[in-house]
Amino acid sequence: MSGPALRLALEIDGDGAHPAAWRRAAHSPDQLLSPRRVARVAAAAENAGFTLLTLDDGALPPGAGPDTVGRIGAVERAAFIAASTSVVGVAPVVPLTYAEPFHVSSQLASLDHISVGRAGWVVSEETRPEAASVWGRPLVDGALARARESRDGVEVVRALWDSWEDDAVIRSVATSRYLDRDRLHYVDFTADTYTVKGPAIVPRPPQGQLVVLGHPDRVPGGQLDVALVEGRDRSAIASGVALADTPRAFAEVEIALDTADATAEERVADLERHAPWSDRGRLRHIGSAAGLAALLGELTGVVDGVRLHPLVLDEDLPELSRLVLPHLFERRYAVRPLPAATLRTHLGLERPANRYAAAAAQEDAR
Fold first, then answer.
1. Whole-angstrom Cα distance, residue 199 to residue 184?
2. How many CB atoms are located within 10 Å of the residue 309 CB?
């Protein structure tokens, strides 16, 4: 049975989901971090019809051993993509385990201004102990402690986005007034390990609140707009969606597609000689483009969207663009994003009212 059309997200960090993906990339290794390559991948995904691009990140280099690669910060890459695209949404991964929520709030609000309302945020964790020394912070030890930092961080970031009301900026040359101080608010947030006074130093984002994505086992569902749900089959994903209790849910799907040069199995086997493709408990498709299209069609009505993790971007993205996405659009299993619309609009999410303005309105009504 089919349901509402899917929104399609694509993870574009590095050369692909496999740790040795660079070995099959179409470019030389020194081009991985070049602006030209980042722009090329983003343009290809936007033209294909993806709704959202995500960019993984962390304090430490990804991978280990002979396949360790570097990366530029996800927020910086997202800002570059936002300025070089016009329709697709962009959501960097920003862990909150050690980062200052005040700075995270400012960076992401700025990204939403740059993109004119096309920004999101994938909440993540720093799980490796070495990350603490990179930040110069005490170790946040254990899953519960990391979940606490994510919970508190999301709450304070959201409060800071609301600390400027929508009409706080005046820009009156005649009166020499830039801000209405009565429409800026202290957030006065107290967590277990820090306090934040506020207000923010960046005006409220165009979307009011950026779209916040994350895994509901690490961030409370009430703080998320989109749950990223893992599961090895349709039934497990459906169960995860039911438990998530979020406005929207996306399935995490890892893919390796047949190409003109090699089957999906051959491509995976070639990379497995160098490093294993770790099983993260996600739905995985290794096979034809038609098979992937059929699998995604079966997920309509179960999830609101999918986030695809290609084995090798340079090999799988052309197949997605040529064979998979056109099939999904033709059968209305998925929809393209609309020009001049925000990411919240693309996902069918309302622009939230400012909490401080709403509270003042309620007080005035009494």
1. 7
2. 25
**Phi, psi dihedrals of residue 340, rounded to the nearest 5°:** 60, 25
- Burial call 124-155: b when 16+ CB within 10 Å, e when fewer: bbbeeeebbeeeeeeebeeeeebbbbbbbbbb
Cα–Cα separations (whole angstroms), residue 187 to 98, 121, 169, 306: 20, 20, 18, 34
Residues pairing with 294 in the sheet: none
| For residues 262-269, average pLDDT | 98
Rounded to whole angstroms, the Cα distance separating 219 from 143 reads 11
Structure tokens at 223: 């703080």
Helices 234-244 and 289-299 cross at an angle (nearest 10°) of: 40
120-124 and 89-95 strand pairing: parallel
- Other CB atoms within 10 A of residue 230 CB: 16
Q: Can you tell me the distance from the alpha carbon of 112 to that of 123, in angstroms, rounded to the nearest whole number?
A: 16
Q: Which residue is it, tokens 């962009």? A: 90
Helices in 87-215 by DSSP H: which ranges? 101-115, 130-135, 143-161
State the greatest distance between any 2 C-alpha atoms of the chain, in Å, as a whole number: 70
Q: Model pTM?
A: 0.94
- pLDDT tens-place string over residues 17-33: 999 999 999 999 889 88
Euclidean distance between CA atoms 150 and 155, whole angstroms: 9
